[in-house]
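Let's do one together. I've listed all components of the complex below, 368 residues spread over two lines.
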Amino acid sequence: MRRIVCNALIEIGYTDHTEAEDGLKAMEKLTSEPIDFVITDWNMPNMNGLDLTRGIRQHETLGQMPILMVTTRGLKEDVLAAMQAKVNNYVIKPFTPDILRDKIDMILAIGS
Amino acid sequence: MLDKLDELRSIFVLGQRAIPFIEEVVNLIRDLAPVLESINGSLQDSASKLPSASSQLERVSQATENATTEILNLVDLALITCGELGKSVDTVSTFTARLEQLDAQIWPSIEERIGPEAWAAVQPLYVEYADSRGAMFAGIQKGLSGQHQAIDTLKDGVRQITLSLQVQDITSQQIASVNHLIHSTRERLHKLTQNLGMKPANPVNDTKLASGETFDSNARYELPGLRELAPRDRAAFGSNGDLATLGDIDKLFASQ
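Okay, and this is what the predicted structure of the assembly comes out as:
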């Protein structure tokens, strides 16, 4: 799935990206590499996307990181749970590169 | 004394009447014993088959993941090839346009240099050449345009394959959910066989459950936009079990 997201990112012009297998690895990368946007799945081993989002929000330097959640979870209560965890936007799979671009643009527009 | 004898007689009569019933109960218990044995065997059999079912599902999930990776490799290759083809077509197009430009410059220059008499001798040949050249360039442009369209169609198809491949992630979520159910059932069977005083077929291995992996049992493969068409009341966002549409999500996050 990460590869599909990466391919979609390349297609919409975002060629500079890095990957992490799960939430824990993502947290490690976030604290050691210059990263300015996070796209996370919800269902991941070791640390899921919701916990990753909470971890980022509670972090002293990463707290304002834009986060887009891309997931199979399509119930309204899931979206609300993600919103409560403070993701910036939410995409339900399957998605097209255009949807991904729109969501990233929305987050960046609000951020700027 | 007589009262006591009457009571005793009543007890005997009751006992006589109860004997067939007790016999029935004994027979029922006798009949139940093999059934219970069979249930015990069945429980053990089911418990022993569950790990196999679970590992089969894991293999299915792994196989689809491998197949998806292979398809993605081919998709990447197809997109690279499309890109190279597109560049080749663009190069031919650029050279053709340059040739047309040069042609338009060369012939007037020749006409000017050789003078009207010599040009009059060359002109029929030039007219034939110009017609052929015009037809050739038109043919090349048409061909290049067709190739561009074919490459774009191919790219769209390949992109659509990438979109469709997201089904692998969605089905793997569902398989993980079924596997979780199998693990839970096996755990219950394990406890049940223990309560029945039987030796469990295999100890329950909870490593899969303990790994912290999450899954979505409601994962479904619906093309983007399909949910927008589903008739449902959107007035109360957040009602249990209702699916969110792209519009719902946009509205919700826009209101933040």
